Amino acid sequence: QVQLVESGGGLVQAGGSLRLSCAASGRTFKTSTVGWFRQAPGKEREFVTAINWSGISTNYADSVKGRFTISRDNAKNTVYLQMNSLKPEDTAVYYCAAGAYSIYVIHSYSYWGQGTRVTVSS
Question: How does strand 46-51 pair with strand 78-83?
Answer without folding.
Answer: unpaired
